[in-house]
Amino acid sequence: MSSSQPKSSKPADPAPKIDDAAHKNPELEAMIAANPRDRDSYLVYRDWLESRGFTQGDRVTLGPLADCDDMLDELDWYHGFIRAARVRYTLDRFNGVRPNVSVEQALEWLLDDPGPGRFVQRLTVGLVLHDDNDYGGVCRVIGARPRPALEELSLGDFGYEECELNWTSISDASPLWASVPRLRKLWLRAGSMGLDGIDLPELRELETVTGGMPPQALAAIASADWPKLERLHLQIGCGHQDAATDVALIEPLLAGTRFPALTYLGLCNCEFTDELCERLAGSAILPRLRHLDLSMGTMSMAGVQALLRTPRAFAHLEGICVDDNFLPDEAIPLLDSLGPPIEFGAQREDVDGYRYASAYE
Question: Which of 81, 98, 149, 201 could form a disulfide with 92 if both were Cys (CB 3.0 to 4.6 A apart)?
Fold first, then answer.
């Protein structure tokens, strides 16, 4: 994709200024935030906004978003408000066929009071730019507009034909944390990501898709307090993409004290799978797990032998995935002897002893 500027870079007209006192009702907003699925609270609030001219028919007005139909899809309306949405950049914007509205601007219009997304529960952000796909600005926009109803957030929902994964980044996600206190599911996909100070006490699921998770990002995840996290699935990546390669970074995770509810653990696409196998058997986290995913990594027979030294430690698991590592067929009966169902999948062959994480692009 060319990095040339769009043919027309004329910015869109700013959203009109609205008097806060005319549309703010903290009492009604708090009722919805406390129970985002309560139908009656939405209807009362919508009626209140209608009396002040902020609705169109039975919905809150889209405002300038009405001209962003190409950027805003997968909409789910709930009693007058957008409950779920996907926001993305498009080639028509890049090429100047339509006014050059950025993803950040569209998000502001969606989330600004009294916008239709003020009580959004599920938000997905696709491509930000074809040639500079960084989600740091998206994080700042959401961070400046606290969304207490938001429960699911996905960043990086784009295809390879739009942008290479390792050309993208989440330069700094830290503005998000305080603005999404009820977030339950977080999915992050980018070539690299900055996750300093991550603090999401209600989170149940966290998944990263990356070929270049920096050491500080992995350390931030492993060292955070996760009182309700049930599922953790991390792709980490390759050292030549500046991904973490030191297994010691996950020691706080294996200690278990910060992950009391965790039952599914995926430590995937990393270059320390054998070392991880060495440490798992005696870890405090293992007895509470039900599923263990070690796929896409660098596991060899050394990792298999490490698991076999303490087979009882793994017998309670409901499944172990070792797909896409560097295991020979003779590893299959050995792993089967552990007891849990094994997902062996397809394996790679090392060349002259060189093993690497599966995905980095």
Answer: 98
Residue boundaries of the structural domains of the chain = 60-343
Strand order from edge to edge, sheet including 319-321? 72-78, 81-87, 122-125, 152-155, 185-189, 205-209, 231-235, 264-268, 291-293, 319-321, 342-343
Cβ-Cβ contacts under 8 Å for 126 (sequence gap 6 or more) = 86, 87, 88, 89, 103, 156, 157, 158, 162
Beta pairing partners, 232 = 206, 265
Answer for the pair 331, 183: CB distance below 8 angstroms, yes or no: no
In the chain, which stretches have pLDDT less than 70? 1-22, 56-57
360 Cα distance to chain centroid: 17
Domain 60-343 is in which class?
Answer: alpha beta
Express each pLDDT in 34-93 by its tens digit. Answer: 888 888 888 888 888 888 877 766 788 888 999 999 999 999 999 888 999 999 999 999
Q: Which of 222, 195, 193, 194 is nearest to 210 (CA)?
A: 193
